């Protein structure tokens, strides 16, 4: 008879759940399942718990009903007494409830579930450990208070032990939980580091399993992102040059997380960036950007930007490693605005240091693209701001006139000021450039610019005009043909 | 006779003396006065106030003189002994008050008329005293007049002389003071002269330095301008040596600074060549890294391909083994060995190579494999025999509404899929552990009775001897009286072994540093 009581919800798949909601209200289902949890036969208890878990997993309303139905304290109390299947099922319920929102996770914590889950982490069965670690990870994911609660329950050393277990699934889940814990604040990251997690995580980078590598790299990057000391600790675990092999992995997300890790390390200080450059990290990241598409590229682009931003030597190293072409292709090819904005920012960082750098960027013919993006009304505000800043930075140092010419024709006044300023700096000293300026129509364009007298733009225009003989300036000034014709009309020939 | 002690402020005594000896014949007076006058020259630090080294200070001062026989007991003189030679002054509270000053005995007449009987007369004796008396009486009025006349002259003279003396003295004092002032003036001029000279020389030195400095700077700057133009000229003309000499001669500070700064920056701050080398090294390193990564990626790919291929081959082999019956025979060609083909299909070859699959079913996963830790002694899990026998071929189908034999047998011999209930043990590990613990405790009990507290109820209970202690003929002494077997005939010596090495002092103290009562706890 008890066998017949196996709840049918155990066999219900997700597609049928809507049907369930329609047929029964969820309260009635809960009320049906609740007494089954106290059944004598342990199998029934386990199956009832499993059913509850699946219901709560699907929908957050159902999860809330689980919480409101006071089921959680019961589960938590009986968790310590029961066998491993029940433990797995109960941990599954807790995870399903805790994953939807911080409030539900808080409700789970308030039932005292964390201590019990921490005890489950010490169980022999790897399945139980996995379920418990998963539940803890989902709870800790939401915010730093919940993470702190998880840490206070003493879960971190047990998770570090779990990482060392031979089962791959358990390693994955433990790594992902550590990543979720350490992402919120430096103190939490420090707690994870103090438990000795870095050494084990660093060893696991060599593991061939792709999903495990994803989680491990994510965990290391969450640790390294908070402060210089943590980043240095991660670097001291000798992840370079092994981490560069992850950038060549066939799995996209492994590449993405690897690039994220290198970015988090590079962004702190010039010394760390220098270290990465010396280890050949820049070349690996550039290749990685070239081979991926989409959001996977974003961390790599940002990493190049950070490295170039620190100092001009590092920026030159990026240029020498052939970093500019991939950035240009990213700028052109990508559809998403935020990736384009990142690429524009990175180019700005590369080109802003000295005229040599600006020349390298300008030669890649990327300035017109930047300008068009700036002028485009469909670009998001962030993209516009970033392109403008990048243009400004590069233009202020650019002395490569052939690249500046095309910009003269389309630029808005605030950019025009910089372009004309650069011309006014270079033209007085270079006669060949002056000739080219005239022949390419730049002088004509400059004459057509209307500037307020006394403004900086007018000064630059005056400086340029002073470089040329008066006739040619007058020749190119607008309306000169009319003036000449008028003179012809008014001319009284001397007979 | 001792000269009068040098008295302060004694004027050059000559005046006094002359005045003194003028009207009268105070010759005897001269003697004490002269040494007193001379004694002035011996002025020394014994004077009061000691102010007389430098100047003959004319401060009026009362002088003390040792009483001379001529002067008699000390007579207080007037406050200005030099001054009032003419007029006697009343002494300032010196000596008993006298209406008039005492006059020196037999001295000059200017102190006032001496009573006649005091005057000493040379040669006048008391021979004809009566006659003398009459004679004297006769002279008396004349004497009176004479005396008066003389006094008057003297008085007038005295006035004149006093005034004269005062004038002379004042003039002289004035001279002296002026001389002193002049002297002071000279000194002061000297000091101020020297000091002003020193100040101006200092100032002058400063001015000279600044002027020199300015001159030098101008000179150098001029040289720099000149040098630049000269240098361009020299480089164009390509003469190095001359330029060197020129530089050595007139190198300006600005030039030096420029050169030094350029050198320093180029060497330490922005070393162009080092940067270039570094960038080259970076690109070389990048190449190496890229190559290595490429190799790694290729290796990965190869491995993946190999794995896939192996999997495929394994599958193919398995298929071949399963379908071994498709192998062609002598008579009938198999489907893979069509006679119209030139050569047999590779599958055919594979079939030829492979061994037919045996009928043994695959090993079913034992349901008790997971419960291994429950059975500490059982290492190999018990496996169920899957049904090995196949249904006999060619059996007559039984008549009747029977199910298909194969199906029935399949169902009958289906391997057991234990349900959750069967697979899981009902007891949780916690309970199992508890049971174990209880068993362990029961095992280790010394005896099964509880230990009861001390009370009189149990006082008379007989103590049950433990098995260890009770021997056949009563209690065994082994374990109580002696713990070891001792065989003296096997001993090497009769005495104990002695330690050769000295014992460690610290260890000797063990257990002996404190009293034994502490050890009861």
Detailed description of the structure:
The complex is a heterodimer of chains A (495) and B (521). The N terminus of chain A is likely disordered. The radius of gyration of chain A is 32 Å and the shape is elongated. Chain A is mainly alpha-helical and 495 residues long. Helix content of chain A is 74%, strand content 0%. Chain B is mainly alpha-helical and 521 residues long. In chain B, strand 1 and strand 2 form a beta hairpin. In chain B, helix 1 packs antiparallel against helix 2 and helix 3 packs antiparallel against helix 4. The radius of gyration of chain B is 78 Å and the shape is elongated. The N terminus of chain B is likely disordered. The chains are: A mainly alpha (495), B mainly alpha (521). The interface between A and B is medium-sized, with 33 and 29 residues. Chain A: This is Sperm-associated antigen 6. Chain A: One of its GO terms (molecular function) is microtubule binding. Chain A: InterPro entries: ARM-like, ARM-type_fold, Armadillo.
Notable features of this structure?
heterodimer, A: 495 residues, mainly alpha, 34 helices, elongated, disordered N terminus, B: 521 residues, two-stranded antiparallel sheet, 11 helices, 2 strands, 48% helix, P-loop_NTPase (chain B)
Write the layout of secondary structure elements.
The complex is a heterodimer of chains A (495) and B (521).
Chain A: H1 17-23, H2 26-36, H3 42-58, H4 60-68, H5 71-79, H6 84-98, H7 102-110, H8 113-120, H9 126-140, H10 144-152, H11 155-163, H12 168-182, H13 186-194, H14 197-204, H15 210-224, H16 228-236, H17 242-246, H18 252-266, H19 270-278, H20 281-291, H21 298-310, H22 312-320, H23 324-333, H24 337-351, H25 355-363, H26 367-375, H27 381-397, H28 401-410, H29 413-426, H30 431-439, H31 442-448, H32 456-467, H33 470-476, H34 480-490
Chain B: H1 13-21, H2 27-39, H3 129-237, H4 240-249, H5 253-269, H6 272-322, H7 346-353, H8 405-412, H9 420-423, H10 429-444, E1 470-471, E2 474-475, H11 505-508
Antiparallel strand pairs in B: 1-2
InterPro entries (chain A): ARM-like (IPR011989), ARM-type_fold (IPR016024), Armadillo (IPR000225)
Organism (chain A): Anser brachyrhynchus
Protein name (chain A): Sperm-associated antigen 6
């Amino acid at each position: 008879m008890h066998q017949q009581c196996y709840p049918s919800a155990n066999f219900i798949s997700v597609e049928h759940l809507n049907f369930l909601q329609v047929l029964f209200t969820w309260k009635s289902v809960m009320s049906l399942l609740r007494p089954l949890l106290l059944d004598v036969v342990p199998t029934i208890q386990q199956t009832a718990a499993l059913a509850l878990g699946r219901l709560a997993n699907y929908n957050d309303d159902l999860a809330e009903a689980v919480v409101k139905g006071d089921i959680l304290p019961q589960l938590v109390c009986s968790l310590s007494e029961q066998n491993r299947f029940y433990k797995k099922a109960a941990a599954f319920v807790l995870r399903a409830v805790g994953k939807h929102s911080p409030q539900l996770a808080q409700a789970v914590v308030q039932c005292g579930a964390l201590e019990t889950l921490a005890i489950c982490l010490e169980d022999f069965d790897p399945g139980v450990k996995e379920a418990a670690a998963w539940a803890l990870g989902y709870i800790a994911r939401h915010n730093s208070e919940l993470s702190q609660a998880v840490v206070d329950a003493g879960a971190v050393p047990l998770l570090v032990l779990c990482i060392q277990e031979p089962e791959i699934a358990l390693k994955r889940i433990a790594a992902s939980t550590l990543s979720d814990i350490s992402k919120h604040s430096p103190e939490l990251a420090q707690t994870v580091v103090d438990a000795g997690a870095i050494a084990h995580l660093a060893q696991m980078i060599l593991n061939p399993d792709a999903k495990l590598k994803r989680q491990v790299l994510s965990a290391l990057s969450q640790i390294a992102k908070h402060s210089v000391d943590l980043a240095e600790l991660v670097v001291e675990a000798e992840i370079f040059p092994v981490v560069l092999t992850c950038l060549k992995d066939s799995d996209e997300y492994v590449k993405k997380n690897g690039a994220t890790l290198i970015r988090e390390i590079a962004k702190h200080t010039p010394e760390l960036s220098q270290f990465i450059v010396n280890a050949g990290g820049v070349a690996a990241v550039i290749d990685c950007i070239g081979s991926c598409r989409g959001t996977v590229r974003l961390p790599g682009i940002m990493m190049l930007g950070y490295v170039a931003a620190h100092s001009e030597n590092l920026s030159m190293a990026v240029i020498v490693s052939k970093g500019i072409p991939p950035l240009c292709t990213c700028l052109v090819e990508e559809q998403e605005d935020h990736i384009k904005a990142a690429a524009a920012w990175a180019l700005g960082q590369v080109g802003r240091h000295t005229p040599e750098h600006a020349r390298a960027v300008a030669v890649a013919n990327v300035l017109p693209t930047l300008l068009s993006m700036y002028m485009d009304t469909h670009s998001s505000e962030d993209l516009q701001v970033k392109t403008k800043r990048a243009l400004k930075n590069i233009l202020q140092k650019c002395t490569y006139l052939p690249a500046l010419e095309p910009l003269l024709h389309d630029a808005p006044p605030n950019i025009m000021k910089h372009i004309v300023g650069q011309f006014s700096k270079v033209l007085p000293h270079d006669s060949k450039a002056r000739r080219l300026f005239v022949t390419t129509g730049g002088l004509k364009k400059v004459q057509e610019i209307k500037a307020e007298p006394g403004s900086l733009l007018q000064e630059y225009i005056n400086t340029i005009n002073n470089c040329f003989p008066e006739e040619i300036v007058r020749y190119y000034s607008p309306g000169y043909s009319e003036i000449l014709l008028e003179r012809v009309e008014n001319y009284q020939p001397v007979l | 006779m001792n000269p009068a002690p040098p008295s302060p402020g004694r004027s050059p005594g000559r005046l006094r003396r002359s005045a003194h000896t003028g009207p009268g014949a105070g010759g005897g007076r001269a003697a004490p006065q002269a040494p007193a006058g001379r004694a002035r020259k011996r002025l020394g630090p014994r004077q009061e106030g000691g102010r007389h080294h430098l100047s003959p200070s004319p401060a009026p001062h009362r002088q003390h003189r040792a009483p001379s026989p001529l002067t008699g007991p000390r007579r207080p003189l007037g406050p200005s002994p030099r001054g009032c030679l003419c007029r006697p002054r009343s002494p300032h509270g010196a000596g008993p008050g006298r209406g008039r000053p005492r006059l020196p005995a037999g001295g000059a007449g200017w102190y006032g008329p001496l009573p006649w009987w005091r005057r000493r007369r040379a040669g006048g004796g008391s021979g004809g005293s009566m006659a003398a008396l009459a004679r004297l009486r006769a002279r008396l009025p004349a004497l009176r007049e004479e005396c008066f006349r003389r006094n008057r002259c003297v008085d007038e003279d005295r006035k004149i002389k006093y005034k004269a003396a005062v004038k002379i003295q004042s003039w002289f004092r004035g001279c002296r003071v002026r001389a002193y002032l002049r002297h002071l003036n000279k000194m002061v001029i000297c000091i101020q002269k020297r000091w002003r000279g020193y100040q101006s020389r200092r100032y002058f030195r400063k001015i000279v330095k600044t002027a020199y400095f300015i001159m030098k700077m101008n000179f150098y700057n001029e040289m720099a301008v000149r040098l630049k133009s000269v240098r361009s000229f020299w480089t164009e003309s390509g003469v190095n040596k001359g330029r060197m000499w020129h530089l050595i001669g007139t190198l300006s500070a600005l030039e030096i600074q420029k050169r030094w700064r350029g050198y320093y920056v180029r060497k330490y701050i922005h070393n162009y060549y080092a940067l270039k080398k570094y960038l080259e090294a970076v690109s070389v390193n990048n190449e190496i890294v890229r190559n290595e990564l490429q190799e790694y990626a290729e290796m990965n790919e190869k491995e993946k391909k190999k794995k896939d291929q192996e999997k495929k081959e394994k599958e193919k082999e398995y298929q071949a083994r399963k379908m071994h019956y498709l192998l062609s025979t002598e008579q009938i060609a198999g489907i893979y060995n069509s006679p119209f083909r030139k050569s047999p299909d590779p599958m055919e070859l594979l079939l030829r190579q492979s061994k037919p699959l045996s009928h043994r079913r695959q090993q079913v996963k034992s349901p008790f494999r997971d419960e291994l830790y429950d059975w500490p002694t059982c290492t190999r899990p018990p496996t169920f025999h899957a049904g090995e026998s196949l249904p006999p071929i060619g059996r007559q189908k039984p008549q009747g509404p029977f199910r298909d034999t194969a199906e029935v047998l399949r169902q009958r011999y289906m391997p057991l899929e234990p349900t959750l209930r069967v697979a899981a043990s009902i007891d949780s590990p916690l309970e199992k552990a508890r049971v174990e613990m209880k068993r362990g405790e029961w095992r280790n009990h010394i005896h099964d009775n509880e230990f009861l507290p001390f009370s009189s109820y149990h006082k008379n209970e007989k103590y049950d001897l433990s098995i260890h202690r009770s021997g056949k003929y009563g209690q065994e002494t082994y374990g109580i009286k002696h713990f070891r077997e001792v065989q003296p005939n096997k001993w090497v010596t009769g005495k104990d072994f002695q330690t050769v090495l000295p014992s460690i002092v610290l260890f000797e103290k063990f257990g002996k540093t404190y009293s034994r009562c502490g050890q009861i706890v």
